[in-house]
Amino acid sequence: MAGVEFVKGHGTENDFVVLPDPAGTLALTEARVRALCDRSRGLGADGVLRVVPTRAVVDAPAGVDDSLWFMDYRNADGSVAEMCGNGVRVFARYLVETGLASEGRFTIGTRAGERGVTVHPDRTVTVDMGPARVVGRSAATVDGTAFPGVAVDVGNPHLVCRTDTPVDDLDLTRPPGHDPVVFPHGVNVEFVNVLGEDALRMRVHERGVGETRSCGTGTVATVAAWLHLAGRTSGRATVAVPGGQVTVTVDERGSTLTGPAVLVAGGELDEQWWADNGF
Ligand SMILES: N[C@@H](CCC[C@H](N)C(=O)O)C(=O)O
């Protein structure tokens, strides 16, 4: 086979390898995802976004139109996740830059359902992220300290811990402890400081990846939890993350995420490397 094409991109420095697969025939094994994301033996990334027609995706959820481009998202450890807020912005930008979609508003298929996106002239992207549902309370532990948090479902699971401890002081090199009864499939854990009336700062430890410089679904969960703790159901906030800043709105009907989407480079994977890293 010819070398596999790729594009490298990021959204607030949450970085991805984009793999176009118009025929739906790419054998994207867990081993290949791990190798691609490895920062020493691969390209290096937090995750992989396969660009594939929905009709070719065997586990596409019911209700996603077959004619849509589908974001087949994988974490760096090879696991599949339902949704990726930074990834979907990069995915949308990729579709526009390659002529597979036109600037403006269109819809993308994901494992969390259909998501409306708007690619703006300045190349920022707004995503309709769907409902951000507060589903309970739990706690995370870091270095033996418990941080109470709010569990939020944004298609994927989050535990948002608002704290007065400066988030920049936390050691997130190891996964925070969590309650496996509340989160049987693992969880993305956000630590949040309130900076001002509508300004938050967040760090995240992502399921299947580790600490990343941003997590789009995590920022939406963060704003939903912050509003919930204030007894509110709607509002707008900016969320500063190590890799930049995004804007989130939440109301009774759903949520939106707006932020940058950057394409860095493109090329072709070495055929022998692809073959060697299949299993
Ligand atoms: N970085 C993503 C979230 C990716 C999935 C997550 N690690 C999970 O396993 O749920 C984002 O920007 O939302």
TrEMBL record:
SUPFAM superfamilies: Diaminopimelate epimerase-like
Any Pfam family the entry gives: DAP_epimerase
Origin: domain of life: Bacteria
Keywords: Amino-acid biosynthesis, Cytoplasm, Isomerase, Lysine biosynthesis
HAMAP family noted in UniProt: DAP_epimerase
The protein's name: Diaminopimelate epimerase
Binding locations of substrate: N14, N75, G85, N86, N156, N188, E206, R207, G216, T217
